[in-house]
Amino acid sequence: MATLVIEKLRKSFGPIEVLHGIDLSLQSGEMLVIVGASGCGKSTLLRLVAGLEEPTSGRIVLDGRDITTLDPSARDIAMVFQNYALYPHMSVFDNMAYGLRIRGLPKPEIQRRVHEAAALLGLEALLARKPRQLSGGQRQRVAMGRAIVREPKLFLFDEPLSNLDAKLRVSMRAEIRRLQRRLGVTSLYVTHDQVEAMTLGDRLLVLHLGLPVQLATPMEVFDRPANTYVAGFIGTPAMNLLDATLTAGGTAARLEGGMLLPFADGRREGADGRKLTVGIRPEHVRLEPGGVPLAIDLVEPLGSETVLLGRMPDETMLSVKVHGVWTGGERTEIAIPPASLHVFDAQSGLRLDPLR
Amino acid sequence: MERRTIFAGWKLPLLLVAPQLVLTIVFFYWPALVGGWESLTRTDAFGVHVLFVGLANFHDLFADPRYRAAILRTVEFCAAVTALSLGLGLILAVAADRELRGRDLYRVLMIWPYAVAPAVSAVLWILLLNPQIGFIGRFLASHGVNWDYALNGNQAMLMVILASAWKQVSYNFIFVLAGLQSIPKAVIEAARMDGARGWYRFRTVVLPLLSPTLFFLIIVDLVYAAFDTFGTIWAMTQGGPAMATETLVVKVYNDGVVNLDLGSSSAQSVVLMVGVVALTALQFRFIGRRSGT
Amino acid sequence: MKRRTLLAGAAAAPVVAAPVVKVLAAEPVHITWWHSMSGALGDQVNRITKQFNAAHKDIVLTSVFKGSYPDTLNASIAAWRAGKAPNVAQVFDVGTGTMLAAGPAVKQIWELAKETGADIKPATYIPAVRGYYSLPDGRLASMPFNSSTAVMWYNKDAFKMAGLDAEKPPQTWPEVVAAAKVLKAKWADPMNAKGGPTRYALTTSWLTWIQFEEFSAIHNIPFASEDDGFNGLGAVLQCNSPAHVAQLQRFMDMEKEGTFKYGGRDSAPDPMFYSGVAAIGFGSSAGRGDIVRNAKFAFAEALMPWDPAVSKTPHNTFIGGASLWAMTAPHRTEAEYKAVAAFFQFLALPEQDAMWAQNSGYVPVTFAGDELSKKQGYYEKNPGTDVPIQSLLRSPVTPYTRGMRLGRLPEIRNILYGECEEAFAGKKTAKQALDDTVSRGNAVLRAFQKSVSG
């Protein structure tokens, strides 16, 4: 159980800087998920912590010890790789025992740890097999086991589920969560999958183009996205982001089509006419007879829910999520509840909170 | 799914394989058969007198302590050339696999010796090692080493081993490098995370994953050392001094082409052919076993 | 065959001055000549071919370079077995035994002369040359062509520096040994102290040919029984006589005292002499071209030394090199054999023989060619070039100075090389090495005997 502190971490490959200064602090036993689109630098950040890459500047402190320039072997960190990276020529047992043997653990201790981990992961029957004789999910579990037996200070997960099929991914996700909670090992988990991020993380770090955008609990990221990027990235279908201007002395936003949206939570700073982006999640749009007419272009039934893609009278696109099956035809009328509005500055994209 | 192309009739398929078939028969089967027949005869060079002698040539061969010595010598030579060229190829490939400045140039330079004709490489080595005019030879002589490969059999052997291995290093280098690059980077990184360093990581992870490549190369190198080094040895020592560098192929040439003792030379060729077949079978078996599971 | 004879017209005057009879036939006869003459020698072969074709409008001679001597021999053998032998093949001296045993594959010169009516007289050729290629009764088997002999090359500058008389080279083996000691003390050692390549007093190319085969001839002792094999296939080696053992011991002693350096087999040690590393270099007289081209010092060639303890006077050396063999093939016509005979006669013309010798460094093979060179003043202008012919004419030819007539002689030479190398390396005594040579060599001779008698 250890804390991890990352300070002003930068990384350049040649002339290109891919991480522009990351500050991060993990509590003991915390699972932090780093999420972002591919190319945002999340894997690089993980590899810097692992020691597989050297940072250009900044510091990494694990459990009070500066490990910034230490060899990976000296860091006491275990990592689960995207493609498992099992040793193809070793049995499952040897794959798990490899790191322990290097550390010179006594044989009985190695036996004990490997068997414990195997029991935990349901791998007991497979210990003598070679990786090529395992299914994808089994390999994933071996990769987990290899990390677990080490009993490291820190777990690193590099998109560990992305090579699995959808169904397996869901069950493995739950299993990872369960194990991490049970073992209580501080963890960094990298993914591009927002569902994984939401379900696994104690906290999320959203990375965008090498910059940290928001560091908060999953629900806070969902409820109060720090900017339009996060707002659009987290949530399915993506939040509707509409161009608007500040009006009525800062108490409402007017959409381009003329529709007035009063703020439920108070006045925003700035003169009337300030360019805004207002966000409304599709599931928060209400169907309301007599409301704004919406011409429906596309109906996407998801089973228990249906997503409608439509156009408002001013041709602004809007998606709406409704329960059950859509039977309403090609037109409907909607309302946007003021309490569900997210307000962002149009220029910076940053969230605008009400004045107090 | 296996793709199969079905030809109607047999004429086109036969026509398509005919060139290869003809080449194989003319250049492999026919000479092998003639060699096999001649190994059972005693004949003069012109074939005017041909006497069937059964296995007498083979009997004479294996009764000759010099032939047994040549077998042993060839085994030693092959083992040394293989170990040296594969070891060097491995070291150089590992070096080239790293991120290092001028890597591409380094790789090109590494591949050059392979393109040098055996006779040319032999001349280059003689120019280096000749006791009178060679740079290294004179250096050794001036430092108290009695360097004289024209008389000292061990030194001559060392020289042909060096020259033969040098030519094969490139081949090993290319294949080992390809083998190294086909090892997933993540596996190496996983080993690093597991705490494996340097030589231990190389021995426990890289080497086992390289072993199919290495096994393939050992067979290729053995065959190379046993057969393709003829040009190098012939140009450097002609098998001398005494018979210190006379490997089996050199002996086949000496007895067949120089001495025109066709019966014995053919018998030796047959023995060599059996050796190659055995090596090839070993390789097929091993590769078959590996890919079978 | 219908033929019309014409006098050679002025316009078609051949380069040679001898009267040439020209034959006109409807179709020219094509003959081929496979040879191993490369470089400057190859140019000479081309010249000869051109001049022959110019002189014989009814014959088209094509000369083809087939690689080394063994290459040409093997190609000829393979071609004969396939029924496509060349009309003329150049075969090296040591292949003579093989060719003589080739039976129907070749048409020996006496046979060729008899069948075609061509006038080829053995007496035209210098005895030490023709002896090598003759049957015991004097009939010529193959056509002498490029012939050289063993000589002693020496570095005059080194002799002068060592205080030796550069105009009076050592004549006997004791004198050679003594001179070598002086050369080491007063030339090689002081030079070596200054650096550069290590110098030696003496080396030898063709150890087996020169120091054992020619050594036997010079002392008129047999190298093998049956008159060095001339009288039959049952010959056994006799090169382990006390005289031979003493000869090898002499080289071993010189090697030990640092005056002699073994430089490898055949012509491999040649560069040691012409690069100035060895002051005395025994070698082929045909090495003159290389020496002239490379030596940066005054040099000369001398007659081979002899050992007065073995023979009071020195005898003639025999030749090395190669001769031309007429080969047979199915459907070979009389006209072709006649053309081959004409070609051999052409080569024996004094002008051709002298020109070939002067341009190639080989000795003239005919008395007339030698006389012509003398008359042209070639030997005066090129001092030392007559040493080889002197060596060949040093004494009347005896049964032991004709040359070697042993089957698989290359193999026997290699055995002798190997045994000498072991002796020099200190693994065997001189007696042991030569005894082993004899027993191993005899096994080869018996195998050859069996193979050719079916």
What fold name goes in the CATH topology slot of the domain at 77-239 in chain B?
MetI-like fold
**β-sheet strand percentage of chain B:** under 5%
Q: Major sheet of chain A, described briefly?
A: 6 strands, mixed
CATH architecture label name of the largest domain in chain A: 3-Layer(aba) Sandwich
Largest sheet, spatial ordering of strands of chain A: 6-7-8-3-9-10
- Radius of gyration of chain B from CA coordinates: 23 Å
Instruction: Tell me the strand order in the biggest sheet of chain B.
Output: 1-2
Poorly predicted segments of chain B: none
Can you tell me the CATH class of the domain at 77-239 in chain B?
A: Mainly Alpha
Give me the CATH superfamily of the largest domain in chain A: P-loop containing nucleotide triphosphate hydrolases
What is the total tally of β strands of chain B?
Answer: 2
CATH fold description of the largest domain in chain A? Rossmann fold
Ranges of chain A with pLDDT <50 over ≥5 residues? Answer: none
What is the N-to-C order of secondary-structure elements of chain A (H for helix, E for strand)?
A: EEEHEEEHHHEHEHEEHHEEEEEEEEE
Structure summarized in a few sentences:
Chain B has 293 residues and is mainly α.
List the helices and strands and how they pair.
The complex is a heterotrimer of chains A (356), B (293) and C (454).
Chain A (H helix, E strand, L loop, with lengths): L3 E10 L2 E11 L4 E5 L6 H9 L6 E6 L2 E2 L10 E4 L11 H11 L4 H15 L14 H14 L4 E5 L7 H18 L2 E6 L2 H7 L2 E6 L2 E6 L1 H6 L4 H6 L6 E8 L4 E4 L4 E3 L12 E6 L5 E16 L3 E7 L5 E7 L7 E5 L6 E4 L11
Parallel strand pairs in A: 3-8, 3-9, 6-7, 7-8
Antiparallel strand pairs in A: 1-2, 1-4, 4-5, 9-10, 11-12, 11-14, 12-13, 14-19, 15-16, 15-18, 16-17
Helix pairs in contact in A: 2-3, 2-4, 3-4
Chain B lengths: L10 H28 L2 E3 L6 E3 L3 H8 L1 H33 L5 H13 L2 H12 L5 H8 L10 H29 L3 H9 L4 H31 L1 H7 L11 H11 L3 H31 L1
Antiparallel strand pairs in B: 1-2
Helix pairs in contact in B: 1-12, 2-12, 3-7, 3-9, 4-7, 5-7, 5-10, 7-9, 9-12, 11-12
Chain C lengths: L3 E3 L15 E3 L4 E7 L3 H17 L3 E7 L3 H13 L6 E5 L3 H5 L5 E2 L1 H8 L10 H4 L12 E6 L1 E6 H6 L11 H21 L6 E5 L2 H12 L6 H4 L13 H15 L13 H5 L3 E7 L3 H7 L4 E4 L17 E8 L6 H15 L1 H11 L6 H9 L2 H4 L5 H6 L16 H16 L5 H23 L2
Parallel strand pairs in C: 3-4, 3-5, 9-10
Antiparallel strand pairs in C: 1-2, 5-12, 6-12, 7-12, 8-10, 8-11
Helix pairs in contact in C: 1-14, 4-13, 14-15, 18-19
